[in-house]
Design a protein that fits this description.
Layout: H1 5-13, H2 18-29, H3 31-37, H4 43-53, H5 58-84, H6 87-91, H7 93-123
């Protein structure tokens, strides 16, 4: 499984140096790294894949992933509930919610455009001028 076409393609899509750094973190901290990675942007995407590549116990990986997900969700829920108790935020809740939704939508569109540009740029061969 390690030397398959899928794994070679997955390793090519990762930023340079990220796989060795993530493997070092995984070897040093083990399952704790999976739990903590849930709270770190971009790292949370790589860690479960690395757990699979490292062929760690599927059951333990699922348990740690589930507990970290639940912790992540509850911490965000509690933070949201705490923030909503502030009078200014609760007064403009509808306005703030609309802006968060629009911001998320704009970021999603930007991500799709960037992905489209990246995919089309790879398909076109580079033209050199003589």
């Amino acid at each position: 499984m390690h030397n398959t076409q899928f794994m070679r393609k997955a390793e090519q899509t990762l930023p340079d140096g990220s796989l060795p750094k993530a493997k070092k973190l995984l070897n040093r901290f083990g399952f704790l790294s999976l739990f903590v990675s849930r709270f770190i942007p971009f790292v949370r995407v790589l860690t479960p894949m690395l757990m699979g590549v490292a062929q760690l116990s599927v059951i333990r990986t699922l348990i740690v992933s589930f507990t970290s997900s639940i912790t992540w969700v509850f911490s965000l829920l509690l933070l949201g509930k705490w923030v909503m108790r502030h009078p200014f935020v609760s007064q403009y809740q509808e306005f703030i919610t609309k802006w968060f939704l629009m911001g998320s939508f704009i970021l999603m569109i930007a991500a799709f455009i960037a992905l489209f540009i990246r995919l089309t740029a790879k398909k076109r061969p580079l033209q050199t001028s003589n």
